[in-house]
Automatic annotation (TrEMBL):
PANTHER family: 16.7 KDA PROTEIN IN WHIE LOCUS. CDD domains: cupin_YdbB-like (cd02226). SUPFAM superfamilies: RmlC-like cupins (SSF51182). Gene3D superfamilies: Jelly Rolls (2.60.120.10). It comes from the Bacteria. Signal peptide: none annotated. This is Cupin domain-containing protein. InterPro entries: Cupin_2, PKS_Associated_Protein, RmlC-like_jellyroll, RmlC_Cupin_sf. Residues 38-96 form the Cupin type-2 domain. Pfam families: Cupin_2 (PF07883). It comes from Cryobacterium algoritolerans.
């Protein structure tokens, strides 16, 4: 089944836009997404699901209303469901997200930064 092997770093090299997740793989009812992040996102929540961030490169700050969580390479953080958060990155970050299929990146707020989940070719 070597045709099913996916390389996260290779997939990231094909992504040109920030804040636009791409599905790398699916497991049960969850998607493993790769994404490049830079700048500040929007404050939002995911009312029905937790959201896992795994930073591969760079430094990502996940702003919460009561504190900032700073992630570096190989760090993992789970934003609990319903917790308002706003990711930001001064320089480009490459990351993996793990969340249920159908989760919208802007959560409950929508807007111009909402992504249509892209498939990697």
């Amino acid at each position: 089944m070597s045709d099913d092997v996916r390389n996260a770093l290779s997939a990231l090299s094909n992504i040109s836009e920030h804040w636009q997740p791409h599905r790398l793989a699916s497991i049960n009812d969850y998607d493993l997404k790769v994404v490049k992040l830079q700048g500040e996102f929007v404050w939002h929540t995911h009312p029905d699901t937790d959201e896992l961030f795994l930073v591969l490169s760079g430094e990502l700050t996940i702003q919460l209303r009561d504190r900032d969580v700073i992630l570096g390479p190989n760090d993992v953080f789970v934003v609990p469901k319903g917790v308002e958060h706003c990711p930001k990155a001064a320089a480009e970050v490459q990351a993996i997200l793990f969340e249920p299929q159908g989760t919208v990146n802007t959560g409950h707020v929508g807007g111009s930064m909402t992504s249509n989940l892209r498939e990697l070719g």
